[in-house]
Structure formats: C-alpha cells, structure tokens
Amino acid sequence: MTTHTPEGEAVTDLILAIFLAYGRIMKSGDALLDDLGITGARWQILGAIKNSPKTVAQIARRYELSRQGVLWNVQGLVKDGLVEFVANPDHKRAKLLVFTDLGRKTHDEIEMRQRVWSNALGRSLGLQDVEAATRCVQSLGELMKGSETEDADLASSDIS
C-alpha cells in the first residue's frame, strides 16, 4: 500500500480545503443574491456572457461543466426574462445567449454586490496571501488538466 509523502498529504489537505471553500462560496453567493433569484450557477452563466454572447456549449466548455447542466440553468434564466437566445451567424442551430434589458440590469447589480463582497474578503485575507493562493490553485488546476485518464490508470495500479 502506498502512503502519502509530506507533499502528497499537503495536496490532499489543499484539495479538501478547496472542496469546503467551494461549497461555502456557493452558499454565500446564493445568500448574497437570493433576493434577485440568482444562484451561484446562474451567476456563473451571466458572467460568461458579460462581454459577448455565447452558446450553451461554449459556456459549458469554458467552465468544464455538462451542457445539460448549463442548459437547465439557462432555461431558468430565459423563463425569468434575464437572457434570451438570438440567431448565431456562425451556426444555424446553436443559438447565442444574450442579456435582456432586465438581465443586464440584474448583472450590473450582481457586479456591484460582488465588488463589495470581494473587497471585504480581500481586506481580511491580504493581497499577498490571495495572490499566492491564486497561483497555487491555478497550478493545481493546470496539473489536473487532461490527467483524468492518467489518474485512473495510476489509481488502479496502486490497488493491485
């Protein structure tokens, strides 16, 4: 049986901390925007189309989510009148998602609240720690990119 190296134990602790932080971030984001009817997942979609229209598939690829999950949230946003589909000049069937007037106003409100929220968090954490944590999490993400099959092969070889 393989045991953790000190580095392996530290990475395990980091991953578990990221899982916990993610859950708390989503819960806090949901609370921050509850009166607007926006969840963290919907917030992510609105942010994806902030600067330019996107297809559901493009949003799913950008955040490495399932198309079905993104589509489910998009359908809720459409129903609530925050976004709409428009013709895509590059593709007949894959329509582009854009803000409605209400959606743009809602997104502007979300951004204002997010700035206040993140400024307060940043003051508590300190710039150097936030920048170091960002670099570490980005590096971990890069190491994970494309390693799903390699990891499965490694895990199965440890079992035998």
Q: For the terminal residues, how far apart are their CA atoms?
A: 9 Å
Integer tally of domains: 1
Helical element count? 7
Radius of gyration (CA) equals: 19 Å
Total beta-strand segments: 2
CATH topology: Arc Repressor Mutant, subunit A
Mean pLDDT: 91
How would you name the CATH homologous superfamily? Winged helix-like DNA-binding domain superfamily/Winged helix DNA-binding domain
Helix content: over 70%
CATH class assignment: Mainly Alpha
Question: Which CATH architecture is right?
Answer: Orthogonal Bundle
Question: Could you please describe the fold and organization of this structure?
Answer:
The protein is mainly α and 160 residues long. The protein has a single domain, classed as Winged helix-like DNA-binding domain superfamily/Winged helix DNA-binding domain (Arc Repressor Mutant, subunit A). A two-stranded antiparallel sheet has the order 1-2. α3 packs across α4. The longest helix is centred in the N-terminal third of the chain and has 28 residues. The radius of gyration is 19 Å and the shape is globular. The mean pLDDT is 91. One of its GO terms (biological process) is response to stress.
Give the arrangement of secondary structure elements:
Blueprint: H1 6-33, H2 40-48, H3 56-63, H4 67-79, E1 83-88, E2 91-99, H5 101-125, H6 127-144, H7 148-159
Antiparallel strand pairs: 1-2
Helix pairs in contact: 3-4
Keywords:
160 residues, Arc Repressor Mutant, subunit A, MarR/SlyA-like, mainly alpha, globular, DNA-binding transcription factor activity, 7 helices, two-stranded antiparallel sheet, MarR family transcriptional regulator, WH-like_DNA-bd_sf
